[in-house]
Write a structure and sequence with these properties.
Elements (H helix, E strand, L loop, with lengths): L2 H12 L6 E3 L6 E3 L9 H14 L1 E4 L9 H8 L10 E5 L3 E5 L10 E4 H7 L2 H7 L3 E5 L1 H9 L10 E5 L1 E3 L6 E3 L6 E4 L4 H16 L5 E3 L7 E4 L4 E4 L14
Parallel strand pairs: 2-3
Antiparallel strand pairs: 1-2, 3-13, 4-5, 6-12, 6-14, 7-8, 7-11, 9-10
Helix pairs in contact: 1-2
C-alpha cells in the first residue's frame, strides 16, 4: 500500500479520535470510542482495515450490533467475508486480508501477540537467518483430535508450506509466521534442528509481554484485528469458569 494512503488513514482516523482512544501498548492494541462501525461506508471499512493493520488490534466500545436486525448485521459482516462461527480470512477489496470472526463465547479477556513487533525485536543477524526458511503448516492433528472427542470438524484440514517471515501487503512490515498449533517442521532442517529453532520462536513470542495486549470485554464491545500479524488465545481466568457452557 502506498505510504500516502497509510498517512491519510492515520490522519483521518487517529486524529479524529484523539480524545476517544487509548493505546493498550505502544505497538499493539487501541481502544476507540465515539464511532459506530456498523454505520461505516465502504471507504470507511477500508480505512478500518488499514488502521487494524497499523495498530494490530482495535477495540470499539458501545457498538450497536446487538440492537440492529440480524439481517443488517450479517450484511455488514458479509462485506468482508462470509459470517460463520469460525475465522474467515478474506481479500478486502483487493487491498489486504481481513478477519471477520464471531466468537461464540468468551469468559476472560483474550490475549493477542504482535508477531511483527516480535520480529523487529530480534537481532539483525537472527532476522537474516530466518529469511528464506519455510515451514510446513497443518491442521490435521486438530481435526483428528476433534473427531476423537466426537466434536465437529468444520472443514477438512490441509497441509501447506509457508515462509517463517512474511511481508504485510498494506504496511510492508515483516512478521513471524509460526504457531505451535499448526507449524510442524522447518523444511530442509533435521528434526532436532527444526525443533530447537521452533521452540525458541514459540517461547520468545509466548513470553514477550511487551508485544502482547489484552482487551477486557464489556457490553457492546467489538474487536477487530489483523490476522496477518497476530496470534491470539482465549484465556480462562481462575474462578471465572461457569458451571456449564452458556447456550
Amino acid at each position: 500500500m502506498e505510504p500516502t494512503l497509510i498517512n491519510h488513514v492515520r490522519t483521518s482516523w487517529v486524529h479524529r479520535w484523539s480524545g476517544n482512544r487509548k493505546d493498550l501498548t505502544p505497538t499493539v492494541g487501541t481502544i476507540l470510542s465515539g464511532v459506530q462501525i456498523s454505520q461505516l461506508s465502504n471507504a470507511g471499512k477500508d480505512q478500518l482495515a488499514l488502521l487494524a493493520a497499523q495498530r494490530k488490534v482495535l477495540a470499539f466500545r458501545d457498538q450497536d450490533f446487538a440492537s440492529i436486525p440480524i439481517e443488517e448485521a450479517l450484511k455488514y459482516g458479509n462485506t468482508v467475508g462470509v459470517c460463520t462461527s469460525t475465522r474467515q480470512v478474506v481479500r478486502l477489496r483487493g487491498i489486504l486480508k481481513f478477519t471477520w470472526y464471531i466468537e461464540e463465547w468468551m469468559i476472560a479477556p483474550p490475549r493477542w501477540y504482535g508477531t511483527a513487533e516480535a520480529y523487529r525485536r530480534l537481532s539483525h543477524g537472527f532476522r537474516e537467518r530466518l529469511h528464506g526458511l519455510k515451514a510446513v503448516q497443518s491442521g490435521i492433528d486438530q481435526a483428528e483430535s476433534a473427531r476423537a472427542r466426537y466434536s465437529i470438524v468444520r472443514r477438512e484440514p490441509v497441509t501447506s508450506v509457508h515462509p517463517l517471515v512474511r511481508t504485510h501487503p498494506a504496511t510492508g512490515e515483516k512478521a513471524l509466521v509460526v504457531n505451535p498449533q499448526f507449524t510442524r517442521y522447518i523444511v530442509g532442517y533435521k528434526k532436532e534442528e527444526s525443533d530447537a529453532l521452533l521452540k525458541f520462536l514459540y517461547d520468545y513470542i509466548a513470553f514477550g509481554a511487551d508485544f502482547q495486549a489484552r482487551v477486557k470485554w464489556a457490553k457492546g464491545t467489538v474487536v477487530v484485528w489483523d490476522a496477518i500479524q497476530q496470534l491470539w488465545i482465549s484465556l480462562v481466568s481462575v474462578g471465572t469458569l461457569p458451571a456449564s457452557r452458556p447456550k
